[in-house]
Specification:
The chain is α/β, with parallel strands linked by helices and 120 residues long. It has one domain: Rossmann fold, CATH 3.40.50.2300. The protein is 42% helix and 20% strand. The protein has a 5-stranded parallel beta sheet with strand order 2-1-3-4-5, with helices on both faces. Helix 3 packs parallel to helix 4. This is Histidine kinase. One of its GO terms (biological process) is phosphorelay signal transduction system.
Length: 120
């Protein structure tokens, strides 16, 4: 089985680092992006198997990015799990087209289990 690639987009470097270490330890290839405005281009280049996306980011919010992904033919089927500390996060994520939602602060096992649902 080939190594699955997961892209992580969050404006919090600490969260990005934790997820990168965790996913790497689980055997995933991890690509990170802190600036959401670079994300679409990066997805087209790296073609990840799944995206972990923060909802609240400066410049371009996660739900805006997600709506663009869902309207872009080449990447619209990309599984996206939204991460957010927001109370309405799961509703916003669902409205934008997320496949799943994880509340922050998140449980690492929970994230891994959700990822495996989509990748295996």
């Amino acid at each position: 089985m080939s190594m699955k690639t997961i892209m992580v987009c969050d404006d919090d470097q600490g969260i990005v680092d934790v997820l990168e270490i965790l996913l790497d330890a689980e055997g995933f290839n991890v690509i990170t992006e802190i600036n959401s405005t670079n994300l679409l281009k990066k997805i087209e280049v790296h073609k990840p198997d799944l995206l972990l996306l923060d909802l609240w980011m400066p410049l371009l919010s996660g739900d805006q990015v997600l709506k663009t992904i869902r309207n872009t033919e080449s990447i619209k089927k990309l599984p996206v799990i939204v991460l957010s500390a927001s109370v309405d996060g799961s509703d916003i994520a669902e409205d934008a087209g997320a496949n799943d939602f994880v509340a922050k602060p998140f449980n690492l096992d929970d994230i891994i289990n959700k990822i495996k649902v989509f990748l295996y």
